[in-house]
Amino acid sequence: MNRVGTRIAAIFNPHSGGGGYRRDVPLIFSALRGLGYEVEELQTKESGDATRLAREAVAAGFDVVAAVGGDGTVNETINGLACSDVPLAIIPTGTVNVLAMELGIPLDPPDAVRLLGGDAGHISWIDLGLAGDRYFGLMAGVGMDAAVVASLHPTLKKALKEAAFAVQGLATYLTHEEPLIRVTSEERTVEGYFAVFGNSSNYGGAFGITPLADMRDGLLDVCVLKDKSFVSTVWYWTAALINAHIKHPKVEYFRTENARITTVEDGKEVLVQTDGELAGSLPMDCKVVPRALRVVVP
Length: 298
Prior knowledge:
The chain is of the alpha+beta class. It has 2 domains: about 5-120, Rossmann fold, CATH 3.40.50.10330; about 135-290, Tumour Suppressor Smad4. Helices cover about 30% and strands about 30% of the residues. It has a 6-stranded antiparallel β-sheet, with helices on one face. Helix 2 packs parallel to helix 3 (about 70-80) and helix 6 packs across helix 8. It starts with 6 loop residues before the first strand and ends with a strand.
C-alpha cells in the first residue's frame, strides 16, 4: 500500500465476537507497530464511542483509522469518518463481518493487518448511504429486520452467531405486527411491509437482499416486500439465498438516489436499522452519498 502516513488510530471493541478475540488485540497492535505505524489504542466502552473517537482522530490529524471489531464497530467508525479524507482500515474481529466480506478484506486479522503494509492493499473510494443522520456502508432495513435488531439479546447473538438473527426473526414475526409503509422516490412510489436500501450486494453472511447493488455506482438498490403473509415471508427469506426473490410479483426492486419512507397509518412505530444497529424510526429520508469514504482494500 502506498503509505498515507504513519499515525494510526486503532478503535477496538473488546467485546466484539463475544470477546473471543480479546487476547488477539494486543497482537494486532504489535503487528501494526511492526509495519512501522505509531499506534494510538482507543477502546470503546459504550454505544457511540467509536463515532466520537473517529471524529477526534480526524481532528487530531491521524493518517489512518482502523476499526478493530465487527460490523457494529465498523458502522460507528464510518459515522465518524464519512466525507473526510482519512481512510478506514477494517480488521475483523466480530461475530459477523459483512462489510469486510463485501470489500474482499481477509477475515483473519493478521491477513487484514498485512493490507496496511507493502503492496498488499490500496486505498479506494466507496459510496455510503445516509438514513436520517446515520451513515451506512451495507444497508438500511425498515420494518421487520429492525425490530429483530431491537429485540436481539447479546447472549443469543454470542451463542448462535449468524443463526441468532434467523431464530429471533421467527420469534419477532410471530409476535410483532408490521404496519404498512410507503417508499416515495423520483422513480416510483411503493407500499409494503419491509424495505431494504442496499449500498452493497451482501446483506448477511449467506445471502443478499439487494444482490445487484454496487458500492461505487452512486445509487441505492431498493427492495420492498409488498405482502406480509407467513407464506410470502418464508418464501422471501428462502428465495433470497439464491437471489430469486427480486423477480417475484410481491417484491418491488429498483434503484434510486434518494427516497422518503413513511408509515401509511398514523401512530404506528416502524424502526430502522443501519448495518445491524438501530438508527431510529419512521418517517425518514434515505439517500446515497457518492464517494463518501476512503477505505483500505486488497
